[in-house]
Fold this protein.
Amino acid sequence: MTALASEIDRFNRLSATWWNAVGPMRPLHVVNALRQDYIGARIAARFGRTGPAPLAGIRIVDIGCGAGLLCEPFARLGAQVTGVDAAAGNVAAARIHAAAERLAIDYRIGEPAAALRDDERFDAVLLLEVVEHVDDVDGLVRRAARHVAPGGLLFVSTIDRTWRSFALAIVGAEYVFRVLPRGTHDWRRFVRPRELAAMATGAGLALADLRGMRYLPVLHRASWVRDTSVNYIAEFARGDGPAPPAAAPVVDAAAEKEIPCGS
Ligand SMILES: C[S@@+](CC[C@H](N)C(=O)[O-])C[C@H]1O[C@@H](n2cnc3c(N)ncnc32)[C@H](O)[C@@H]1O
């Protein structure tokens, strides 16, 4: 078990608000186009896909999918999408929304260890804004890595554990600008890029990209930045695939700021 019961209860209570683009999930709505474009482009590049439907048939699992904010756009692009979430309320909201949108998405309730078969493999595994809400980060990353097919990718986004993240992601976001409900994050659960990289490489993956994301709370805008000291996303690759991973960036242990934002 990697989930925190208190966190799952909290997410269940928020499940009805998930698709409200100006509600408590507003930051996820704001970053959605940005991360969809980035992840979609990285998957297409990895599998040498071009043309009008580069994700057609690509198998994607979104672990901790919430009510499906990212499952839906990828399903629209032709990917075969599975969504897994430990909060039953979120999965119920996801199913209702997908049905209304006439999208075929395989939603499952539970932690990945229970909801996914041991032998299920995906071209891309997404673990976005989840690891900072769990009890056993290493266990969840290992579990996610296990479902990456040969040649496949794992994307993990989360928040670095720095004084800047305390000031911006907790004090700023929850108390000053109130873009997130108070208590959304516990600074001690934030994960340093170096720690995340060690977990994923320990699970047999190689770091392929690392970049920061800046969220401007007043304007509700997001952009990619080189600085990973608050929000960031990491891409990991299983090497035995269709193409070698791009030159792996080195995480600068001192500054944690080395980010070759390749494409
Ligand atoms: C902050 S939300 C992120 C939702 C989505 N990934 C996104 O970025 O739009 C975190 C989600 O992870 C789910 N979650 C937390 N721990 C989990 C676990 N161990 N297994 C599966 N889902 C989990 C929560 O229920 C919640 O829906």
